# Entry
Amino acid sequence: MKIFRKSVLIAIVLFAFIEGNAQVTLEQMAPEISLPNANGNIVSLSSFKGKIVLVDFWAIWCNPCRAANPKIVKLYNKYKANGLEIFGVALDKTKSKWLAAVKKDKITYTQVIDTEGWESDAAIAYGVEAIPTSFLLDKTGKIVAIDLEGDELENKIKELLAL
# Structure
């Protein structure tokens, strides 16, 4: 009986660990993110409810992230007038380096930073284990796509914007 109890206890602990670190799923409401922007003002993801939002987790030291930034900037510029918002979440330790990267990459959409990096509440809530990672939200704040890129992402945005 002791072995059975230990096995059950281990299973419960493992399940709790896996569930606690599981990535959010499609059709789930996006967890709230409230972090400081470049000016130090707290910006909440929920403030964009009613718009199509791409939540983009990235960092300045991540080469694939930096390579993706021009594509995201182009997508934003093309569809912002139709209601697309992008909520960039930087998992960087140094605000000044992050601000320099935002400027260099010509990012004009909403950017926030979490200097806790991988231990950030937002990264944990979304189960972010690699970057870049993105979540596309519909107007209600529900996750409708995860990690789409290129034409696939643009087509889904156009569908959600009814273009």
Q: What stands out?
A: The chain is about 40% helix and 20% strand. The first strand starts at residue 34 and ends at 36. The helical segments are 2-20, 63-79, 95-104, 121-126, 150-160. Residues 2 and 8 are 10 Å apart (CA to CA).
